[in-house]
């Protein structure tokens, strides 16, 4: 029996009933295949192309047989520039994808490149937003350059979400109100991972696209299983009758909802989540954005609630008003002013000065725009360090490794919420004894000491 294997991250990974409503599209793929093929799902949580390559990919190569198919579904977490252990620059991501393609082909198996699925995020006009920062384009480029089959799951899911619209889309994601699901009594808001219905639809999209790829065997997919999706009804929060009454009613009962997050007058990203509590007896919370009804959410057994709208907030100042519904009427309104940023400036680099000399361990320092909590440091598009930003806006970091003598250029990026700035660049020179110099080569017959500083003769120095 031939195999179709999936390598990738949490969006494709198989889930247990205890993790419901979370589901991965890979766990449903076998429903659409003939009995001539076996699905092996090796996708795992938070797995990046770099993490997967040295260990798990070795095991995969050793079990592949000629004619097996391997779906390569990375690019969902590699864009996280605010996380050093996950981030891949586009160049690094591209190089790893090429290595996967080459490795699979050495086993006479078939690599199929897959673009990462779209997130449940819309703009104010209801258009699906591209939140993948150009990484699907990298996958498309590698597919073209290596002449590999491509399943453009990003385009397929974007079209699917566009058809659903923001009033229906979240019903295909792990996105439930408080009190709605026994595994998440406090509610959960997840615009990246699918629920069972969403994962099954994405698996169907994948199977349909695989069925249409030229050059692959014709006995992979059962065409009769590829039935059109059934769209769910509009969400209850968008069918509330006369919601403006709750905001402008003259008679009130009980106490206003408490908004715990975000902080009052905070700087926030465009996809912010709100959370808080209500007085016992409150069944539902309605939200108004700058005086216009924006949606609502259920309340958990302990009085907690969470809410986020699928539409991103535009940049600027906003006022959220929250009103509770009880069997006796509506509560007073809670108000929360906040400011949305959808772009940030690069950090200012104070040291080293442009063109300045540095010792073998450069110390980088500067200031960051308001709201920025991290400055990421890159060299040659590779992440090399991160610098926390203090309350006064200053930051600094000293790289823990000695640098080679010579001219170096480093980039610095401000990170705020899910957005990042364009890089600021600084070129400087590191002082030291260069490779090939007699001071080094004259002592070249002996290996370097391990561990700390060496005081043995002849002294080589930094």
Automatic annotation (TrEMBL):
InterPro entries given in the database record: RhgT-like (IPR037459), SGNH_hydro_sf (IPR036514)
Keywords: Hydrolase
Listed PANTHER family: PUTATIVE (AFU_ORTHOLOGUE AFUA_2G17250)-RELATED (PTHR43695), RHAMNOGALACTURONAN ACETYLESTERASE (PTHR43695:SF1)
Family: Belongs to the 'GDSL' lipolytic enzyme family.
Record's protein name: GDSL-type esterase/lipase family protein
């Amino acid at each position: 029996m031939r195999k179709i294997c999936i390598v990738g991250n949490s969006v494709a990974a198989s889930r247990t009933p205890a993790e419901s409503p979370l589901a991965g599209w890979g766990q449903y793929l076998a429903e659409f295949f003939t009995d001539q093929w076996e699905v092996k799902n090796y996708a795992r949580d938070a797995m990046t192309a770099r993490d997967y390559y040295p260990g798990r990919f070795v095991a995969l190569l050793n079990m592949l047989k000629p004619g097996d198919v391997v779906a390569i579904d990375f690019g969902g977490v590699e864009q996280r520039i605010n996380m050093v252990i996950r981030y891949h620059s586009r160049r690094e991501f591209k190089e790893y994808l090429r290595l996967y393609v080459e490795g699979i082909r050495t086993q006479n198996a078939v690599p199929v490149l897959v673009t990462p699925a779209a997130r449940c995020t819309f703009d104010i006009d209801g258009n699906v937003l591209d939140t993948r920062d150009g990484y699907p384009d990298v996958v498309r480029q590698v597919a073209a350059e290596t002449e590999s089959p491509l399943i453009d799951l990003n385009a397929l899911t974007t079209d699917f979400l566009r058809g659903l619209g923001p009033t229906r889309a979240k019903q295909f994601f792990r996105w439930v109100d408080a009190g709605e699901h026994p595994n998440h009594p406090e509610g959960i808001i997840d615009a990246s991972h699918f629920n069972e219905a969403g994962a099954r639809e994405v698996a169907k999209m994948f199977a349909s696209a695989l069925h249409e790829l030229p050059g692959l065997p014709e006995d992979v997919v059962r065409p009769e299983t590829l039935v059109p999706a059934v769209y769910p009804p509009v969400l209850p929060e968008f069918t509330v009758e006369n919601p403006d009454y709750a905001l402008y009613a003259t008679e009130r009962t009980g106490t206003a909802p408490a908004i715990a997050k975000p902080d009052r007058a905070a700087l926030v990203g465009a996809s912010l989540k709100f959370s808080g509590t209500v007085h016992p007896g409150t069944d539902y919370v309605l939200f108004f954005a700058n005086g216009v009804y924006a949606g609502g959410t259920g309340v958990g057994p302990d009085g907690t609630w969470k809410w986020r709208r699928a539409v991103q907030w535009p940049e600027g100042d906003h006022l959220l008003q929250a009103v509770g519904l009880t069997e006796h009427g509506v509560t007073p309104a809670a108000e929360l002013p906040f400011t949305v940023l959808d772009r940030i400036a690069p950090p200012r680099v104070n040291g080293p000065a442009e063109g300045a000399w540095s010792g073998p361990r450069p110390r980088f320092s500067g200031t960051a725009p308001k709201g920025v909590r991290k400055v990421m440091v890159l060299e040659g598009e590779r992440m090399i360090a991160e610098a926390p930003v203090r309350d006064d806006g200053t930051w600094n970091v000293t790289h823990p490794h000695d640098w080679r003598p010579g001219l170096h250029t480093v980039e610095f990026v401000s990170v705020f919420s899910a957005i990042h700035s364009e890089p600021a660049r600084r070129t400087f020179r590191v002082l030291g004894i260069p490779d090939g110099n007699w001071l080094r080569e004259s002592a070249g017959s002996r290996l370097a000491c391990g561990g700390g500083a060496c005081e043995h003769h002849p002294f080589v120095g930094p």
